[in-house]
Amino acid sequence: MSTGLEITGLATGYRKRAVVQGVTLPVLKAGGVYSLIGPNAAGKSTLLRALAGLQPATGSVTLDGTELMGKPLADWARRVTYMPQTLPQGVSLNVLESVISALRASPMEGLNSSEAIKQHAVDVLERVGIIELAMRNLGHLSGGQRQLVSLAQVLARNPQVLLLDEPISALDLKHQFRVMRLVQELARERQMIVMVVLHDLSIAARWSDGIVMLAQGRVVASGTPGQAITPASLAEVYGVQARIEYCDRGQMQVMIDDEAMA
Ligand SMILES: Nc1ncnc2c1ncn2[C@@H]1O[C@H](COP(=O)(O)OP(=O)(O)OP(=O)(O)O)[C@@H](O)[C@H]1O
């Protein structure tokens, strides 16, 4: 039996249109952060939704040896939490209430009283750095603040597998850094498997144990950041001429010089 998340021959799409076409990956390990990268419309969100059990799919998805494919949504939801790209809005809840209601929607072991649930929600807001927003109405927040609330809602649930769809797209530089650091810390502490969709490849390289590069629903490159993100894969997948440079602290930077020759 293999431990971790194993994805084999995963295919899914919409009506008759195939969008994700036979994705097979090396086992994703507990405690690891894996970035899913690729151009617009590559199928990244569709793949995440299939991994959350929200999208009919074929193939195999096993978690610690247990097959999830074909199981009822409740079985997926107990193990896998998905944060969509869309931000919470239009509800007349304050931030703390919204985290509490996310917790009530999928009860967690050890949180048996209203007081325990509230304390856990407060702890998560502190950890995400938005405790000062606790009493603010969701509808009155900025886009970046709503994205942080969305993250607090999913982190509160402490799943085995966390799927994050562009969780830092609305955030400023400091908050991008904080969120990626927090996600990595929580993956290590809780031995969670995190798969995160990112468009900034330098950020993906910095914070990921593994990279999966998707194009037209297929895996084009995978492995460590240095293995997957190369001038050749960037030319093939994104159509750009790129250089990979390492700064004096050893961090990988992706520099784009031009569009690639056709
Ligand atoms: N609900 C849907 N119904 C029909 N087609 C869809 C639906 N959602 C997505 N698609 C199509 O599936 C393809 C993949 O979309 P998806 O959102 O998975 O891409 P993505 O890689 O996440 O893109 P982006 O980086 O732009 O967010 C696109 O061609 C899109 O038009």
From TrEMBL:
Species whose genome carries this gene: Oceanimonas baumannii
Protein name, per record = Iron ABC transporter
Give the InterPro entries listed for this entry: AAA+_ATPase, ABC_transporter-like_ATP-bd, ABC_transporter-like_CS, P-loop_NTPase
Query: Which segments constitute the ABC transporter domain?
Result: 5-241
Among PROSITE patterns, the record links this protein to: ABC_TRANSPORTER_1, ABC_TRANSPORTER_2
Signal sequence: where? none
Key words, A-Z: ATP-binding, Nucleotide-binding, Translocase, Transport
- Physiological role: Part of the ABC transporter complex HmuTUV involved in hemin import. Responsible for energy coupling to the transport system.
**SMART domains associated with the record:** AAA (SM00382)
CDD domains assigned to the protein according to its UniProt record, in alphabetical order:
ABC_Iron-Siderophores_B12_Hemin
Q: Name one GO molecular function term.
A: ATP hydrolysis activity
